Amino acid sequence: MHRNRNAKIVATLGPASAERATIQALFEAGADVFRLNFSHGTHADHKQRLDTIRAVERDAGRPIGVLLDLQGPKLRLGTFAKGPVVLQQGDSFRLDLNREQAGDQTRAFMPHPEIFAALVVGTDLLVDDGRVRLRVEQCGADFADTRVIAGGAVSDRKGVNVPGVVLPLSALTEKDRADLDYGLTLGIDWIALSFVQRPEDIVEIKTIVKGRAGIVAKLEKPSAISSLEAIVAESDAIMVARGDLGVEMPPEQVPAIQKRIVRACRKAGKPVIVATQMLESMVTAPVPTRAEASDVATAIYDGADAVMLSAESASGKYPVEAVTMMNSIIAQTEADPYYRESIRTAQTTHSPVPSDAIGVAVRGVADLLKVSAVVAYTSSGYSALRMARERPQAPILGMTPRQAVARQLALAWGVYPVLCHEVMDVLEMSDWACQTAKKEGLGQVGETIVISAGVPFGTSGTTNLMRIAQIG
Question: Out of 3, 76, 131, 177, which one is annotated catalytic?
Fold first, then answer.
């Protein structure tokens, strides 16, 4: 089942897309990876959806990726004695650790000592996605006296963001650790880590996962952007989580940051997902706004590996239509001659290492000979990702003997993953690549393919071989 595009679609499952028929329709409409959002639903809900995805996968005969999105720490206020209060600009408002007293017009309980530990005078706190802004005028280990900079209504358990401050807490809560352990027993392909502030957050989860799934760092905090290259280096993929990022940073800065993240990921050869509010109006409407269509197209022009739907497919009225629309926007954008020009212009510099040399050579051969397919034989996924980094014009056939790798490659730009058997030598690899390209409809007898691989076979990160072959 071939897509007429290179960029991939991640679709979130939820109440609107829990049934087998809907998941099947989402896949057929263009979903390559399904996201299970563990901020909502029970373990039983997610297992049922995963079982359904695997059933659709078996019927389709094509690997489907599954992404488990961990909730991460949720910083919130306590409750208010008499319901919502309205804070006016200039008001004084205290936050403290007194859980015995409900909030009122002058104060509120904030059950997060780690926030108080990190505060300094002049720090801004954002309440309810930034609708209310408080500035710290005095603080201690258990309180913060603030001034209301931007007023508004505040009610029970509204979220709190602390932009510009690295909070002394792990990105993994106890709930996350339980969810992670459960997801790994199910054979999840990708784990998305929320609340990433520093590279050490990625190192922490990698010591738990131990290679059983790929790690996606969700970049949603300014502190993560200041350590961008180090976080990209530690991660297996990146998500541009524009929701919280747009709360903690001025909205006008988010587009430039999105482009910077995409460029960093392309340079490193790591898949990058652009997410949040891409077709938001399709939660309630059968068509998107023109601005939303342009937003999706911009991410594609920038070279993103994937774009993601959240509420549109999880709880919206038109989940299948949203995937269909996103599929159409991507295909239309990639058909624009300027798209290929922009991809070439954004081509990253290369390092003097064998994998980069092979990547450059494969792309050059593919363009010069007009090959029908680029074949990456890979046991770890590395060779396929190096080919995806080059953005060749020919489709990338990612052949791997490992089912988990095939499913992970469903996220990578231009890669058509196929499960195959282990090969023992270069000649067998070439013959099997030609047969598979022909069988999968990516080449015909007499056409040329170019193959990349790592020798010795089965060793991760050793892309060092290129071979040109003709389909017989």
Answer: 76
Question: Which of 132, 161, 190 is where one domain is finished?
Answer: 161
Q: What is the extent of the structural domain holding 189?
A: 8-72+170-334
Other CB atoms within 10 A of residue 291 CB: 8
Choosing from 5, 8, 35, 49, the catalytic residue is 35
Number of other CB atoms surrounding residue 421 within 10 Å: 9
Domain count along the chain = 3
**76 is known as an active-site residue:** yes
Please give the helix or strand (H or E) that residue 180 lies within, else none.
helix 174-186
Position 460 confidence tier, pLDDT thresholds 50, 70, 90: confident
Final residue belonging to a domain, choices 140, 161, 182: 161
Convert the pLDDT of each residue in 322-356 to its tens digit.
Answer: 999 999 999 999 999 999 888 877 677 778 888 88
Weakest mean pLDDT among 54-68, 153-167, 345-359, 424-438: 345-359
* CATH number of the domain enclosing 441: 3.40.1380.20
| Amino acid making up residue 77 | L
* pTM exceeding 0.90: yes
Is-catalytic flag, 276? Answer: yes
Catalytic residue among 133, 218, 242, 386: 218
CA atoms lying within 13 Å on the CB side of residue 29: 22
For residues 376 and 397, what is the distance between their CA atoms, to the nearest angstrom? 6
In which band, very low, low, confident or very high, does the pLDDT at 244 lie, cut at 50, 70 and 90?
confident
The residue annotated as part of the active site, out of 276, 400, 448, 462, is 276
